[in-house]
Design brief:
The protein is of the alpha/beta class. The protein is built from eight helices and nine strands.
């Protein structure tokens, strides 16, 4: 369901997008722009150009953001659409806002209430993720890590081999790895990597979001077959 912004703010945003378009496109002419706030489960925004019009859909999580932040988002989205470089100051301003602790807390709650995590059983055709997790837990964490929700992805992905979702306390591994030709070592490493994300939360500092910190890299080095696992992944 779409949530329409009040007319005053919608008009202000439309004017901002038209002005930013003229600046980035180096043109006096700007297409008609429609801006809407939508009920998304994340802070994502979508921009599309079709039939001489530009449609912008922004997460309603950002509906109360300062106009300066929404203007920064306009630069980011239109630069992407026009294949221009995003001015650093606008990228910095937007990232600082979405990395604020209060915004991240609100986003976390929205993902819990609106979102639904979809994945298949941890017992795959070739590997059982519960068994793999329990063995890694005993081997590297003394058996003290609480087991999150585990499952295989519904669609096999060769680019996103695994991810940890803190909002749903779930680790999902790509079903592309649940094949006979994939060595068990690879599944062990990918799941161990995601277990480290469970243990070491993402760090936020100003506009920066650090996922693989120095502490994370040091912990990853504890996996003794790290080099062999990465070589096996490259071969796959």
């Amino acid at each position: 369901m779409r949530v329409q912004a009040n007319s005053a703010r919608a008009g202000a945003l439309g004017a901002i997008y038209e002005r930013v378009w003229r600046e980035l496109a180096c043109s006096e002419q700007a297409p008609a722009v429609e801006v809407r706030f939508c009920r998304f489960t994340t802070a994502r925004s979508v921009i599309e150009a079709r039939d001489g019009r530009v449609s912008v859909r922004i997460s309603d999580l950002l509906e109360g953001a300062p106009l300066a932040v929404l203007e920064a988002l306009a630069y980011i989205l239109l630069a992407r659409l026009l294949r221009r470089a995003v001015p650093a100051k606008h990228h910095d301003r937007y990232r600082r806002f979405v990395n604020r602790r209060d915004f991240r807390r609100r986003l976390h709650l929205v993902r819990q209430t609106r979102g639904r995590k979809r994945y298949s059983s941890p017992e795959g055709r070739c590997f059982n993720l519960v068994e793999v997790f329990d063995q890694l837990n005993r081997r590297f964490f003394g058996g003290l890590m609480a087991r999150p929700e585990l499952g295989w992805s519904l669609k096999p992905s060769r680019t996103r081999l695994g991810h940890y979702d803190p909002s749903h306390n779930a680790i999902v591994i790509s079903s592309w790895l649940d094949r006979p030709e994939v060595p068990r070592l690879v599944v062990d490493y990918v799941l161990y990597h995601e277990m480290l994300h469970l243990r070491l939360p993402v760090e936020h500092s100003g506009p920066r979001r650090r996922v693989h910190t120095s502490s994370f890299r040091l912990e990853e080095q504890r996996f003794p077959e790290l080099r062999q696992a990465k070589e096996a992944l490259r071969r796959l």
